[in-house]
Design goal:
- By secondary structure, this protein is α/β, with parallel strands linked by helices.
- The chain has 4 domains: 50 residues, no CATH class; 110 residues, Immunoglobulins (Immunoglobulin-like); 49 residues, no CATH class; 150 residues, Rossmann fold.
- The strands form 4 sheets. Strands 12, 13, 14, 15, 16, 17, 18 and 19 form an 8-stranded mixed beta sheet that branches. Strands 2, 5, 6, 9, 10 and 11 form a 6-stranded mixed beta sheet that branches. A 3-stranded antiparallel beta sheet has the order 1-4-7, with no helix packed on it.
- A hairpin with a 2-residue loop joins strand 5 and strand 6.
- Helix 1 packs antiparallel against helix 2 and helix 4 packs antiparallel against helix 5.
- Keywords: Membrane, Transmembrane, Transmembrane helix.
Length: 384
């Protein structure tokens, strides 16, 4: 019953009732009430449409703006009025689209005088990373009675906002290891051949006899091993399992928390001057620039079962001594994860498995971390 008793139907019913009363009773008071209701109905239906006539919307922002998720961003829109009459209570709706998400932001302008323009410095807040494109801009008005909600579709500028992920604070829990690099800045000792001798030490059981310095052993009266100097650098390979279509764009999901955790690891590597190698589907090559890595994380699309793919891509590029961080959602099934990590385990070297747990899965019992710990992996869990 309530859905039938809207404002417009009630006023139209009263107008019809007073018109019939005026004809039947021929009362001037009934005619006056009818005219009063008719004027109100006319204004209620006409003014919203007139308020949107002569409107123009211009955008004065950058070509490709960037903002971090959760931070305020001004729209830089200017609403101009070219009609001869003012407009009241104009509502601007901006619809942004990314992946499967649609975000509608609304802003209301109380008064736009004739021949004037109003700068809409509304601070938009994007709750999740991504590349949001402006799909449409609509103007709407229901002033003064809300009997009619007039809408006007405005020309949409080509606008895309790159929303970077908010990096999660991260501290690397393992000692940094050195990878052989001729252009590196760190010198380490190793048993292999080199042009520069590092040190001589006493031979220990089980070591290869090919590294014994026989001249030094003859002088010392016991077997002596020779070490050489090696130039190397700190290198970190970050393997990221991107979220699937169900979790992509959901701020509280484990998949989006994985992207934030990966951004935190990138920031930690940059702070410690560690050479970064970010492996991220669908990129076939590793990303080495931290700024480019953040942009790639922001625009990472949804990929189903991405962990085996990224491990397969990274295995040929892993060098001896390089540190490896595998970032994945905590909601993945343990058998799938253990099978995908077998190649990294056979390679040797330090491997840290970082599990990202979003706020949406906080109440779900976690079984992946105990399974990885039982298999001998060092894990780190990050909760949103």
């Amino acid at each position: 019953m309530e859905r039938w008793l809207s404002k417009s139907r009630v006023l139209l019913g009263l107008c019809a009732l007073m018109l019939m009363a005026a004809f039947n009773r021929r009362d001037p008071m009934a005619y006056g009430v009818f005219l009063f209701l008719a004027v109100i109905c006319t204004l209620g239906y006409l003014l919203p449409w007139l308020s949107l006539r002569g409107m123009q919307l211009r955008w004065l922002g950058q070509a490709a703006p960037q903002v971090t998720e959760g931070q305020a961003y001004p729209l830089h829109l200017v609403l101009e009025r070219r009609a001869r009459w003012p407009a009241f209570l104009v509502e601007i709706e901006a619809e942004w689209v990314w992946a499967s998400q649609r975000l509608v932001m609304r802003h209301t302008v109380a008064l736009v005088r004739r021949g004037r323009s109003v700068a809409l410095e509304q601070l938009c807040t994007f709750p999740c990373r991504g590349v949001y494109r402006l799909q449409s801009v609509r103007l709407a008005s229901g002033f003064p009675l809300g009997l009619l909600r007039a809408q006007l579709q405005m020309p949409t500028p080509e606008l895309a906002v790159q929303v970077l992920p908010q990096p999660s604070p991260f501290l690397w829990p393992l000692p940094w290891t050195v990878t052989a690099n001729p252009q590196g800045e760190r010198s380490t000792r190793h048993l292999g051949p080199s042009m520069e001798l590092g040190l001589l030490r006493v031979y220990q059981d089980g070591e290869p006899l090919g590294r014994v310095s026989w001249r030094a052993s003859a002088r010392a009266g016991q077997l002596v091993i020779q070490h050489f100097q090696q130039t190397g650098s700190l290198r970190l390979h970050v393997l990221v399992a991107v979220p699937d279509a169900q979790a992509c764009g959901q701020p509280d999901s484990d998949g989006e928390q994985t992207i934030r955790l990966a951004a935190g690891i990138v920031a930690a590597a940059q702070a410690h001057h560690v050479q970064l190698r970010l492996h991220l589907p669908p990129h076939a090559e590793a990303l080495t620039d931290p700024a480019a890595a953040l942009l790639a994380l922001a625009a990472a699309p949804a990929v189903s079962d991405s962990l085996p793919v990224v491990v397969h891509q990274a295995l040929p590029l892993l060098q001896a001594g390089a540190s490896v961080a595998v970032v994945l959602p905590a909601s993945l099934p343990p058998p799938q994860v253990l099978q995908a990590l077998q190649g990294l385990r056979a390679r040797g070297g330090p491997v840290l498995v970082c599990l990202a747990q979003g706020a949406a899965g906080a109440a779900t019992p976690q079984v992946l971390a105990p399974a990885l710990a039982q298999a001998g992996y060092l894990t780190h869990t990050e909760v949103a």
